Amino acid sequence: QVQLVESGGGLVQAGDSLRLSCAASGRTFSSYAMGWFRQAPGKERAFVASITPGSMAYYADSVKGRFTISRDDVKNTVYLQMNSLKPEDTAVYYCHLVGSTSWGQGTQVTVSS
Question: Mean pLDDT by 10-residue block, N- to C-terminus, for the chain (113 residues)?
């Protein structure tokens, strides 16, 4: 079972940037797609972005052009660079090993207006 640990969340103002990191241990993830999801209060967990082993990236429409997902297979880490943050981006952000039951514990991102 792979362990995923997110970091990098925080409280920022609208228009600011944050970079989230997700470190994987227990299994090298270079052969797996990785994803970021988020859950806002009172809402379902929703897809944000994913990246394939070949670094093909996919994004939710709501973050396209503002967020960038990347991966470092040497460090077993996936990143989410979030620019031009909006109050509606406020949520707990989770990373996920696609096709597995492995999820991180989540990191809170709060964007004030």
Answer: 93 98 84 95 97 96 98 95 98 94 95 97
The token pair at 15 is 């228009």
Smallest CA-to-CA distance from 21 within 69, 70, 105, 78 is with 78
The answer to whether the CB of 36 falls within 8 A of the CB of 20 is yes
Token digits of residue 57: 């990236």
Using alpha carbons, select from 93, 104, 102 the residue that is nearest to residue 40. 93
- The pLDDT of residue 8: 98
Give the per-residue pLDDT at 30: 86
b/e per residue 29-45 (b: at least 16 CB within 10 A): beebbbbbbbeeeeeee
What is residue 5's DSSP assignment? E
Report the C-alpha gap between 81 and 58 in whole angstroms: 14
Coil, strand, or helix at residue 2? coil
